[in-house]
Amino acid sequence: MLSSLPSSLLHRLALVLLGLASSGCSTLDYYAHLGQGQWQLLRARQPVERLIADPATDPQLARRLALAGQAREFASASLHLPNNRSYRLYADIGRPFVVWNVFATPEFSLEPELHCFPIAGCVAYRGYYQQGRARGAAALLRQRGLDTHIGGVEAYSTLGWFDDPLLNTMLRWSDERLVAVIIHELAHQQYYLPGDTAFNESFATFVEREGLRQWHAARGETATASDDRQRQQFVELVLASRERLSRLYASDLPPREMRAAKQAEFERLRQDYRALRQREWGGQGRYDAWIESPLNNAKLLPFGLYDQWVPAFATLFARSGQDWPRFYEAVAALGRLPEADRRAALASLMQND
Q: Which GO terms describe its molecular function (predicted)?
């Protein structure tokens, strides 16, 4: 079965698995699961051009793949993102998400449980190709008294180790979201700093947003400002709640009182959301299901990770003369700084946005 993959690809996959297995026997089953999931994804890939040209391909699928191809060319030609075979292939994996990420925090903390890997470094989540495995892992974490959250992911980057395909999971979204995801994941291939999730995700999120703006401008289109505004308002609401929770957890309240105050804060977040939806969005909210389902510390984690330094990267882009190669060089220079110096530099950029 493995012989259906090119030998160079097999060599890369073997190196990845060897590095993962060296972490210890206690996690070998998890790493074997990762290897199998990645292998199955790679085997499912087909060239996009061949699918578009095939008259048997569903016309709607062909249209979405053609749009993705245009976005892929734009990303390399105009945003100077890697020009390789990633997202020029397609794979239907027969499920709604490619992986499920499990986040966890202590009951009275917003600091994530970290998981360290040979290639990606330490990250604030652990990914699973099977939803059942993710649920089992979350259940074990809850037995330890941790807050947990499972988030489905429609795409991810192997950071250039493999030619990442377009996935059926990505095609569930709007045309705009599809373009945004392609840009975001290619940004991870452009630059990735092992062990600093907030840096990496904020960088990719900025490239996604600015790249999407330039994509619309190049096509003479008007960006959906209302969607961007709603998302920004929602993120600000969640981050304000995170800040209040941080102050609560830093207090010396006894556990029982802190637990009650924590739940009161989550109820305040729901009430603030409902008021915002009614006041600003005409009673229609994109995040109703998220806000009305159970809330805990772990569920708030992705917001701080994906948005924390976005304004800093916007300032850095402006200082680079809105020149993408110069911007990427400046990002790499930040990444070479010691962690404390890097965070200080980012904080300084935030103050000058």
A: aminopeptidase activity
Report which of 325, 73, 83, 71 is spatially closest to residue 221, judged by C-alpha positions: 71
User: Which domain does 28 fall in, by range?
Assistant: 2-191
Q: Which two tokens stand for residue 293?
A: 């389902």
pLDDT tens by residue, 21-52? 434 444 778 888 888 899 999 999 999 999 99
Query: Quick one: tokens of 277?
Result: 């939806």
Total domains in the fold of the chain:
1
Compute φ and ψ for 217, nearest 5 degrees.
-60, -40
Q: How far from chain centre, in Å, is Cα 122?
A: 15
By the 8 A CB rule, do 345 and 334 touch?
yes
Task: Map tokens 């980057």 to a residue.
Answer: 157
**Does residue 287 lie within any of the structural domains?**
no
Those residues whose C-beta lies under 8 Å from the C-beta of residue 252, and which sit 6 or more positions away, are: none
**Residue 55: inside a domain, yes or no?**
yes
Residue 255 maps to a domain: no
Is 275 among the domain residues?
Answer: no
Give, in order, the Cα–Cα distances in Å from 117 to each of 22, 114, 122, 301.
10, 10, 6, 20
Phi and psi, residue 91, nearest 5° = -140, 130
This prediction has a pTM of 0.82
> Under DSSP, is residue 323 helix (H, G, I), strand (E, B) or coil?
coil
